[in-house]
TrEMBL record:
SUPFAM superfamilies: GroES-like, NAD(P)-binding Rossmann-fold domains. This is Quinone oxidoreductase. NCBIfam families: PRK10754.1. SMART domains: PKS_ER. PANTHER family: QUINONE OXIDOREDUCTASE PIG3-RELATED, QUINONE OXIDOREDUCTASE-RELATED. Residues 11-322 form the Enoyl reductase (ER) domain. Pfam families: ADH_N, ADH_zinc_N. Keywords: NADP, Oxidoreductase. InterPro entries: ADH-like_C, ADH-like_N, ER, GroES-like_sf, NAD(P)-bd_dom_sf, QOR-like, Quin_OxRdtase/zeta-crystal_CS. The lineage of its organism: Bacteria, Pseudomonadati, Pseudomonadota, Betaproteobacteria, Rhodocyclales.
Length: 324
């Protein structure tokens, strides 16, 4: 018997149910894995609430790490016993075991344990496409990263710093400010205490930053635009505070011919070659010893509802892992 967290309707954390499920054998092109750890991400709350609709009933979850239990016909890249991890692809990671397409899996390097693998895949691959492809950070750039003490934030801050950028981060508390500084932030702004735009302008001699990475959404959108230099880029990649409302594109002209993009990871790994390239960048950066994954919370998978409550209440920092 295998168990999973499923939803039969959208809503708050209370809709998450711990239920018995049938896994079965992998179909051609699939593998079955037994999870050792599952990652928790803000997108899970969007899907649970209905902001990002899923066919119901559904098993949530974007990433996990574990061991291959069985391989389907035509699968040659993986074998039983392989240590693997994944992010993206079909949702359904909140479970003890599952079948999924082999092409979304990555072999987990021996130096990376399962919990780290589950914690780093979605946030790490997201950081890889944001910093190396959406806007390619260069030495000398000044970047602004919102939610700098979050899972993506801590990885992105370390990576941007290693690339030679000056890193400005926003956080909500002094504790999170210290955490951000420990992970590459040169300057930290505590929102609610300081005017983000005024502080950024002061730190950049009035010029503004080259790029803003904004996973917060509605609450920071206008300030993010006002923090940019002329022809700077706003990368809005999340909605932690709610979706950005419609606006007149002429605003981008008025604020300095700005660039705006709303990317998602799936569009940067539409082919296996793209996924492998992103993974090579992530695993390669981790191999330098300059990337440290902070797993600051763990929960039993059966307690996923409490994990969602804590995440949405901003009581978490770094990465969170669910243990089947």
């Amino acid at each position: 018997m295998s168990f999973a967290i499923r939803i039969h309707q959208t809503g708050g954390p209370e809709v998450l149910r711990w239920e018995a499920v049938t896994v079965g054998d992998p179909a051609p092109g699939e593998v079955r894995i037994r999870h050792e750890a599952v990652g928790l991400n803000f997108i899970d709350t969007y899907q649970r609430s209905g902001l990002y609709p899923l066919p119901l009933p559904a098993v949530l979850g974007q990433e996990g790490a574990g061991v291959v239990e069985a391989v389907g016909e035509g699968v040659s890249e993986f074998k039983v016993g392989d240590r693997v991890a994944y992010a993206g692809g079909p949702v359904g990671a909140y479970c003890q075991a599952r079948c999924l397409p082999a092409w979304v899996l990555l072999k987990l390097p021996d130096r990376i344990d399962f919990r780290t693998g589950a914690a780093m895949m979605l946030q790490g691959l997201t950081s890889a496409y944001l910093l190396r492809h959406t806007y390619r950070v260069q030495p000398g750039d000044t970047v602004l990263i919102h939610a700098a003490a979050g899972g993506v934030g801590l990885i992105a801050c370390q990576w941007a710093k290693a690339l030679g950028a000056t890193v400005i981060g926003t956080v909500s508390t002094e504790f999170k400010a210290d955490l951000a500084r420990q992970h590459g932030c040169d300057h930290v702004i505590i929102h609610g205490r300081e005017d983000i735009v005024a502080r950024v302008r002061a730190l950049t001699d009035g010029v503004g930053v080259s790029v803003v990475y904004d996973g917060v959404g509605k609450a920071t959108f206008m300030a993010s635009l006002d923090c940019l230099r002329r022809r700077g880029m706003l990368v809005t990649f999340g909605n932690a505070s709610g979706a950005v409302p419609p606006f007149d594109p002429l605003l981008l002209t008025q604020k300095g011919s700005l660039f705006l993009t709303r990317p998602k990871l799936a569009d940067y790994m539409t082919q296996r070659s793209e996924l492998l390239a992103l993974a090579d960048e992530l695993f390669g950066f981790m191999a330098t010893g300059k990337l440290h994954i902070r797993i600051n919370q763990t929960y039993a998978l059966a307690d996923a509802a409490q994990a969602h409550r804590d995440l949405e209440a901003r009581r978490t920092t770094g990465s969170t892992v669910l243990l089947p």
